């Protein structure tokens, strides 16, 4: 059956021969050239049966025309605008990265400050819990008040919740 199809296609002798199609199919490792060839043959056969004339070379490569000086200038201007736009986008992206890095550093500093405040507040809470426990057990503080850590001894950073007390 395949041989009959090829022989029928060869009878119509298009611009491209069946040998060229087979070589193209093998080179591209695809059956697409064969399918295209078969469809072209079917269209050609139907046109012959209906009495229509043959379609001449539908797939001409596009012609290359020389650009006019005006077109060349227009194309160069467009390329230049594109280069400028690309450079502007690179600069903008670089600034954004720098801004984000700066913001990251500020947030890391703020986090360190807040972690320091947390440590100091935990120390204060521990001391106050000890003092409270001594008062609850003995009814009064049995330790030397001079040994107690006061809020003034724990230096808190600006903006700390205890700074407002």
UniProtKB/TrEMBL annotation:
PROSITE patterns given in the database record: BZIP, BZIP_BASIC
Residue span of region Disordered: 66-94
Compositionally biased tracts (Basic and acidic residues): 69-89
An example molecular function term from Gene Ontology annotations: DNA-binding transcription factor activity, RNA polymerase II-specific
Gene Ontology CC entries for this record: nucleus
Stored SMART domains: BRLZ
Entry keyword set: DNA-binding, Transcription, Transcription regulation
PANTHER family assigned to the protein according to its UniProt record, in alphabetical order: ACTIVATING TRANSCRIPTION FACTOR 3-RELATED, FOS TRANSCRIPTION FACTOR-RELATED
UniProt protein name: BZIP domain-containing protein
Lineage: Eukaryota, Metazoa, Spiralia, Lophotrochozoa, Mollusca
């Amino acid at each position: 059956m395949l041989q009959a199809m090829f022989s029928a296609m060869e009878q119509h002798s298009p611009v491209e021969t069946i040998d060229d199609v087979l070589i193209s199919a093998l080179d591209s490792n695809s059956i697409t050239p064969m399918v295209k060839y078969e469809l072209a043959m079917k269209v050609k056969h139907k046109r012959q049966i209906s009495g229509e004339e043959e379609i001449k070379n539908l797939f001409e490569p596009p012609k290359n025309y020389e650009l006019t000086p005006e077109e060349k200038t227009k194309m160069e201007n467009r390329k230049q605008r594109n280069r400028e736009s690309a450079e502007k986008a690179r600069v903008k992206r670089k600034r954004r990265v720098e801004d984000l890095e700066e913001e990251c550093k500020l947030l890391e500093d703020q986090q360190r400050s807040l972690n320091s405040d947390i440590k100091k507040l935990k120390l204060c809470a521990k001391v106050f819990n000890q003092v409270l426990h001594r008062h609850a057990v003995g009814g009064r503080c049995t330790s030397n008040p001079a040994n107690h850590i006061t809020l003034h001894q724990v230096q808190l950073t600006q903006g700390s919740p205890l700074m407002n007390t």
